[in-house]
């Protein structure tokens, strides 16, 4: 569900200058006074001039201003309280701790709606989708599954992994689930395979199957789930005896070259950008952390691996253009920059990657894999 705030009151000047705000509502979180606070991710990070210097805010807490009103799809002109998340550990906490927030304003939402995500899907495809499909193929090779198994794909998105399972794993059936209904509708429209069933579902409420699934997979999703250990435990419960849960995530801290180079140059120009860098935000994206996660959830025979794919950009423009799409942390950071700052960042990257001004750019993207059984 998406919330758009078009006006703010009793707000610091630096926030008023950055309205409108588009917030993807991630989950409800109970507070001490009411159960219906929401944690949301900002499509474009907010620059906050706090007492300890400039910071980039990527997440907020919002709640309907009046106790008898709840945030729900279709509500317009809704007054909401808005607070910055200043401690990222709140993103996985079971209850709201206001000491990890900074209240900033009353906002007015123009509309609360389920985001169709079509323009975002196009931007995602340009930025990450082309690489996601390639790494999905490598993932299935790494799993080396037997044919005619039953599969559950958690966080299926636009269906890249589901489609790869159908093409390369000869499944008996695949259930593709995602919390976003528009993504589920997209999968239903795009994958015309009778073995595929696309349903709305999330890690904490998985679609059940009598006898359990043979394989449960999650591609490039685990680091975005608020409580990944609980999610993996739920996956293990949904397996049949002898089944396998497996997942993969990008190596944001290491060989995700096109992002790693971007953030190194961004932080060199703007130290506040370090707070938005996926390396800092997603410590789970590490083989030791992934193995510990699976063992902590009760998985047996846990092991991890690495997948590498080439990421060839035809030119610097092919590299830079996806960063202008406002979908994902790096493109959202670029959108937060003024014209001059954006030009400086582009110039540094172009000098680094294409000093001759033309030619292809060959980089590498690595993903970490993990698997465990019941």
Class of secondary structure makeup = alpha/beta
CATH architecture of the largest domain: 3-Layer(aba) Sandwich
Portion in strands: 25-35%
CATH class of the largest domain: Alpha Beta
Rounded to an integer in angstroms, the radius of gyration calculated over CA atoms is 21 Å
**First-last Cα distance:** 34 Å
Low-confidence stretches: 113-120
Largest sheet: 7 strands, mixed
What is the arithmetic mean of pLDDT? 87
Helix content, binned percent:
25-40%
| CATH-assigned fold name of the largest domain | Rossmann fold
CATH superfamily (homologous) name of the largest domain: Vaccinia Virus protein VP39
**What overall form do the CA principal axes indicate?**
globular
Count of DSSP H/I helices:
11
Order of helices and strands: EHEEEEEHEHEHEEHEHHHEHHHE
What does this structure look like?
Helix 2 (118-143) runs parallel beside helix 3 (160-168) and helix 6 (257-269) crosses helix 11. This protein is globular. It has eleven helices and 13 strands. Residues 113-120 have low confidence and may be disordered. With 374 residues, the protein is α/β, with parallel strands linked by helices. It has helices spanning 13-16, 118-143, 160-168, 181-190, 228-237, 257-269, 278-281, 287-296, 316-320, 329-336, 339-353; strands spanning 2-9, 21-29, 37-50, 53-64, 78-85, 101-113, 150-154, 173-178, 196-200, 213-219, 239-250, 300-313, 361-373.
